[in-house]
Design goal:
Layout (H helix, E strand, L loop, with lengths): L10 H18 L6 H5 L9 H20 L5 H4 L2 H6 L9 H21 L6 E3 L11 E3 H27 L3 H9 L5
InterPro entries: DinB/YfiT-like (IPR034660), MST-like (IPR007061)
Protein name: DinB family protein
Organism: Kitasatospora terrestris
Amino acid sequence: MPSLVNAETDERDALLAFLAAQRGGLRRAVLGLSEEQAAGTPTVSSLSLAVLIKHAARCERFWITENLLQRGGGEESASMERWADEYRLVEGDTLAGWLAVYEQVAAETEKAVRELPSLEVDFPLPVAPWFPPNSRRTARWALLHLIQETARHAGHADIIRETVDGKVAFQLLAEEQGTPWN
């Protein structure tokens, strides 16, 4: 991980800090790119950097808002069309737009998690063939899952970005911080 997370004050703070660090890595992967570059697929993967941002934003909202908090989503959320649209840019999708949504989702997650009485709050997993029937998970599990998911996509984004222009995560971190890269 190219950025060092500050020392935590408690478990909730630590989980939110590590999630924020992984989001930062994903956002840095698009630093300074044009819409066209961010929408390109320069590797054998069908996913672009813009689509990875879109997917991460939707995934986080799915786990925190729709599942943990049990708000919204429902039938439309689970449709095959919505699922397929998560992995492609559709009309009106822009990198800037999805970065703004991702920032909003991050703020929603932070607020929701800080307001939970405990990380032991549990919720039912959505109905899907890959989840055991009637399974439940805790808020802690949801945060750990999001850290894992976001980290995987940040790593994928690093590879795509390096393919686009040769820039690596440490170089992008230096650019973001305004420090020299050697």
